[in-house]
Amino acid sequence: MKKRVLSLCLLAGMALGTQAEDVYQAQRARWLKLAEQNKPELNHTVHHPVRVVKAVEDKGAYQGWRFDTDKEMTPERLATTNFRELRRVTLDFGDHLTGYISLSLRSLQSLMDAPTRLKLFLGEVPAEMNTPLDPWADNRLARSWMQDEVVTLTLADKSYRLDRRISGRYLTVELMGCSPSYNFGLDSITFVAETSARPIADDGLLPTCPQIIREIDRVGKATLRECMQTVYEDGPKRDRRLWTGDMYLESLANRYSYQNHQLTRRCLYLFAGLAREDGILHGNIFEYPTPKPQIINYMVSYNLLYVLTLLEYWRDTKDRETTLDLWPVAIRQVEDALRYVRPDGIFDQSRGSSWNFFDWRPGIDVSVCIQALTINALQGITQLGQELGRDEDVKAYPARAKLMASAARKQMMDRKTGLFVSGKDRQVSVLSQAWMIRAGVLNKKEARRALTTVLGMPSSLKPGTPYATHYLIEAMLMAGMNDEARDYLNSYWGGMVQRGADTFFEAYDPQDDNLSPYNFSPVNSYCHAWSCTPVYFIHKYPEIFQK
């Protein structure tokens, strides 16, 4: 079914692209040039293993595995220990890193009279390192995303760097073959990490801040740091590309941490410069070897988040030149979304081929969510237009938003429960309520009642990712549920910290350690951009989260 949807999106995109005049023809080259001019320099730091570890199967550990320190071996001793006898070792770099691994062989006895072949495997969490990868099942994603590489070294005492940029904390080195007379040690094992995030001198937290919040903030900043490369990557291990939905949340956390607004500007221009000829954006972009969009991902939901990212960029920088330059792009996304809205004010997804993503939770219906996000985007573009003096451009939008909000209450709300129900099966989900609260369709009293009710219902569909959970926390704050928001953030992101997270995960369910959108948890991204937003909440609302 998913393949069929992607095929339809691809065909629709190709058809629209060939039929429409290139509406950005005059600006496209300049926008891409500006994107390149705003490409940040990467900062490099050198890291060495801090310990040798052994895997221990433990039902109480996250996903059933943990690493204990090997008391008989240290990273320093590896240089003088015959690896032909040791054969396999796992090293811990002490933190999640993104960059390049290098090592050398130190000759201990005899000559290297045959090539030495090693298998290197870098992973983010212990279970990933201890789960058999082959035979590779139908996991929806390519086997090649896993960071295991076979290298053949032909010279001793020479440093070799793995060409592939990799990301993680733990490195396993395994001997696959060498001369039976050659004794050697592993020497100069180095990880050169890179990120465009600058070091932060002060964590910016109040003295009253609880320790768990300090830890959540630290891990959130580490997550963002790893994903801040020359674009806002969604995951430095996998997918390694720029998605609009991740960019929006990363820009919020960036405001209260690294403040690299140049990176946000670059990403906004990349999306604009690589838009379809009819002016509609693509959901994601590959940066190398040259920036290109993934044309199968036509996503109204993410395109509307581009509008909100531009609004947040304006709030952060007051960069009038850039914001006005990209104003037509934002307007075009809103107009495209309004094509789906029927005269009665309901967003009808059958009017097009958009993939409207809100969560990886299986079975979620997003009819209510996209209705609310469209209202939210109409509100955001109106506010931005008024602040830029483009009132005429947005004069019709308040009425459209009001009509959609009224239609949502009339046609999507269950009067008995006060909850929004989504789709033909009238699905009740936490996320439907959260997005309608974010759009202001419910007042504070109604919002509090809706969230309290839906969270207490065993049958309601709960969020399955930190991405979706961000919008739940935001809805709680809008509903005046400050204590509940703090407790939920502590429990959810704090739960990952307590499970040993160095960075926050792509998918996380406290009741299911092995939850995976891809049917195989090792291929999950355990450092994922959309998970970094506790940084935003903790610093924007210190009176709630830091006391």
Please give the number of β-strands. 14
Rg is 25 Å
> What is the total domain count?
2
Assigned CATH architecture of the largest domain:
Alpha/alpha barrel
Specify the helix fraction band: 40-55%
| Alpha-beta content class | alpha+beta
Q: Sheet bearing the most strands, described?
A: 9 strands, antiparallel
What does this structure look like?
The chain contains 19 helices and 14 strands. With 547 residues, the chain is of the alpha+beta class. It folds into two domains: 2-10 and 35-42 and 197-201 and 209-545, Glycosyltransferase (Alpha/alpha barrel), CATH 1.50.10; 43-195, Jelly Rolls, CATH 2.60.120. The strands form three sheets. Strands 1, 2, 3, 4, 5, 6, 7, 8 and 9 form a nine-stranded antiparallel β-sheet that branches. Helix 14 packs antiparallel against helix 15 and helix 14 crosses helix 16 (466-478). The two termini are 48 Å apart. Residues 1-18 have low confidence and may be disordered.
Short description:
The protein has 547 residues and is an alpha+beta fold. Helices cover 40% and strands 17% of the residues.
Structural features:
547 residues, 2 domains, Glycosyltransferase, 9-stranded antiparallel β-sheet, 40% helix, alpha+beta, 3-stranded antiparallel β-sheet, single chain, 19 helices, Jelly Rolls
